Amino acid sequence: MPRLTVNGQQVEVPAETNLIEAARKAGVEVPHYCYHPGLSIAGQCRLCMVDIEKAPRPTIACNTIATEGMVVLTETDRVRETRKSIMEFHLINHPLDCPVCDQAGECWLQIYYMKHGLYDPRMRDEKVHKPKAVPLGPHVMLDAERCILCSRCVRFCDEITATGELGIFERGDHSEIGLFPGRALENPYSGNVVDICPVGALTDRDFRFQVRVWYLDSAKSVCPGCARGCNIDVHVNRRRPHHAEGRRVARLKPRYNGSVNRWWLCDAGRYGFTFVDDKDRLLAPTRREGETVSDATWDEAIAALAAALRRSPPDEIGIIASPKMANEDLFAVRRLLDNRALRRVAFRVPPRVAGDQDNFLIRADKNPNSLGAELVGLGGDSRAVLEAARAHRLRCLMIFGHDLLASEWPAAEVREALGAVETVVFVGANANATSAAAHWVLPAAAWVERDGTYTNFEGRVQRFRQATEPIGQALAEWEIVGRLLAALGDESTATRAEHWFRQLVAAVPAFAGLSYQALGDGGRLLAGAVKA
Amino acid sequence: MTTTDPTFSAEQLAEVRRLQALYPDARGALLPVLYMAQDTFGWISLETEEYVAGLFDLSPAHVHEVVTFYTLYFRERPGRHVVSVCHNLSCHLAGAGSIIAHLKQRLRVEVGETTEDGRVTLLSVECLCACEAAPMMQVDDRYEMNLTPVKIDRILEGLA
Amino acid sequence: MTDEKILTRNFHRQDSHTLDGYRATGGYQAWPKAQAMEPAAIVEDVKASNLRGLGGAGFPTGTKWSFIPKTHTGPVYLVINADEGEPGTFKDRYLLERDPHALIEGMLIAARAIRCATGFVYIRGEYVEPWRRFSAAVREAYAAGYLGKGFDIVVHRGAGAYICGEETGLISSLEGKKGWPKLKPPFPAIKGAFGAPTIVNNVETICHVPHIISRGAAWFAGLGTKTQGGTRMYSVSGRVARPGLYEESVAVTLRQLIYERAGGVTGNGRLKAVVPGGSSAAILTAAEIDVTMDVDGLKNAGTMAGSAGIIVMDETVSIPEALMVVARFYAHESCGQCTPCRESTGWIYKMTHRIVEGRGRRADLDTILDVARRGAGTTICAFYDGAVGPYISYIEKFRSEFEALTDGAAATPSRREAVSHA
Predict the structure, then answer these.
(1) Could you tell me if C362 lies within 8 Å of chain A, comparing CB atoms?
(2) Are A167 and B58 inside 8 Å of each other by CB?
(3) Is A79 helix (H, G, I), strand (E, B) or coil?
(4) C399 reaches A (C-beta below 8 A)
(5) Residue C186: is the preceding peptide bond cis (ω within 30°)?
(6) CATH number assigned to the domain covering A126-277
(7) Do the interacting molecules here have an ipTM over 0.85?
């Protein structure tokens, strides 16, 4: 563990740490473009120059390993001058189009120019022209003129996805990023190149021109797209809703978690949030009588549901919970089981198409909380629940989120089952064919509209936080079930997700010792969890 | 000019394997195999790049990087002969400018173009390292040195 | 100081490129001697000879060889840089065509010194005839049993890129990639071609090695100056009566080369400026030619020996035009990897072009100087520093000539006609 001094401050860093990371540890930011901790060292941008005692001239920090006793200075006059020069070099051929560039506000050319540049521009010659607004694939747009050729995107495709779609072609100031002509950037992780692009060269086709980034708010969250539970930031547009036709969730960005997803996020997860602002969102409780659907109040809905549960013997009540629900919701369901002594419960519904999986992030299980549902004790035979319904042995069936009619089960059998139950209750965020067949439909808040936790396939419990208000009258499932429990006489003091989590921790040994505080931003592995 | 799928013969494929085995990493043979492809197909088309990428198990983008980096791989079919005039310092001092002007006028092309009959492509290039014989040019494989308009005319006459 | 020709001694022979011709003049005599020596002893001899790299950097050859880790057990590679490309230089072309066996014998000895079983010879792609000649010599050497018994040579052709003359750019290219120079550390002697310890030496450097072994380090050292042994091949071109290749002691002066060997200045007969070591070397004025041509002599004169390519300009030569031609070269050949070089070589060419066309401003001159100074030393390889040599020296030493153009007057029409823009 070498100890070194950065701007007079002593730090101790692991062996093989470079000076950018060593400085970071000392609280010192060394500006850089091409360096990315998840990629190989390129040393191309030349911005991360620092002074090292006894070295004849500034050296790039990214390719210099910290050694014992090293004395590093990041703010000497000559380092500042060098940085300023490098900024000028970067901007020689860069177009002056910030007002129409979607990266404005989160562009490291802008940020570093203000911090380290501020020279008088003297480039008056014609800039080199390159292709602009080139779609590279379904998600990524290229503006080659804005590119500073840091090669991060190229290295990402070489080193992380090993798909090698991108290259730097030609040479000198005609060098340009691109695809092999006729090919597309469509690997399952393509959106990451937008995140790591420090400038406006690679932008997100879904996000670009929706809203200026300075109008966005952010909340720490977890991707619900599969059992990996990649850590994300949810960026929401609450301040300029009219800029994006009312779309609230502007984009998802991966959030570093060294134990889960590092810096990355798959495209399926990144762009899988559209259901949140979809037209099929359920806005209010509804009741269906025959073909007639009418709005109801929450009180009416809860009362009706409580009545249905009361008049049904426990054996004639089925619950199909969902592995997309949070631990808090699932524990509330568990309380309901205990309260009514229900046994016909399950949460797994087989998908019609098996999920894809790779050896990087993507898991075949497209649910964020299967392990949590199992640990909370909701594992059961969902097919048996369905068969009981078909056999007219259920009077009440509660379905959380699933579209049973889009599952692997034959639709005719599902329809038969739904038609054979006196009270079918659907709780979910979006309408689907199953909700259309339910007698009661209760709107649930989407994951970005509430707090909660998921347990990923490795047993890591991770928090997600509310990023925006629930749409319409939607409520978190724990609250819906909580109100139902209250109506059934099981008055709970749990008025926040965190309360439910505390009760869960107290009741389920696997979660022992956890708390929201302990989970922090990176989550915690359950005791006894075995890393897959 | 129509493009057919570029494919090496069995003998050429054996040569590719021989070249790949010369290097500690087979990729070392990429430049020589691109030369083989250019000799065989006349130039390096995108189809050729993809074909060669397949022989090396490389992404086509990585082959494209290589082809676009070097000046000796032709990305368009050149004329039957390629005339490359050095325009660097020693040749400049020896009148490379008037040599190029003479060639443009005789061939009726601009630098970078091919004569209409497909006979000659005219290029101007950086130092070919025959400065003792400036002005000079490369005609296909040969260095033609100590150029004069008369000598150039004689050389052009010899190009079929 | 010597008049003896060593590297070029056989150039007059019709068969100098053949095995018979080489052996008839004492070739392959050093190799048996080296085979009887311990590798370390060969390295020590080369160190003691004061042989310095003749490709451009001038690094002591024996010292370079000694950087191969002693404890290394895997493969080690010897790579010969025959990617001659420095404007004004043509020596390696002659060696490959006229004395290819000298290179092979030198490689055998060098390979023994660094315990290497495979050598690569990287020949620039345009050198078709030199490549054929050298390849033929390699076949002869295999047939005669010099090669293939513990040492093999792979001949590799470049494909048109000046940057591949930079040793790590060359390694990238040899590996089948574009010729982007590599970050240092690691240095090639630790992690070079294909990830193995690698020594990259210039053709001419290695051609000296058999003579050092045959005639002794002291003899070789005595041919040159205190800090550099031997002779080297000076490529002389431009406005001189007898442009050509001249082998001389490194203690020769630039004046001697221009006036005694190359027959003096042509044009109007009056010397204006000289590029002493290939286009990357800072230019010297007529008043600065009394310098010895060894590495340190030229370094002390504020320029460099480089590749010993000498380009002579008489008073009728337009220095701004010359700089534009040189700037065009660096803009064309920048590999594009490091931002300062990639972005400013193109910009500086645009400025010099504008100046020559009479559209320059006086401030452009200061901008070029400032940009060049700011970029110097900030890049992965020495390419940009090589470009900075001419940028700064041409303008600083001939500023009034540039200023005359920035006053709004273009170069005279006769001059402009001689300028081509690719």
Answers:
(1) no
(2) no
(3) helix
(4) no
(5) yes
(6) 3.30.70.20
(7) yes
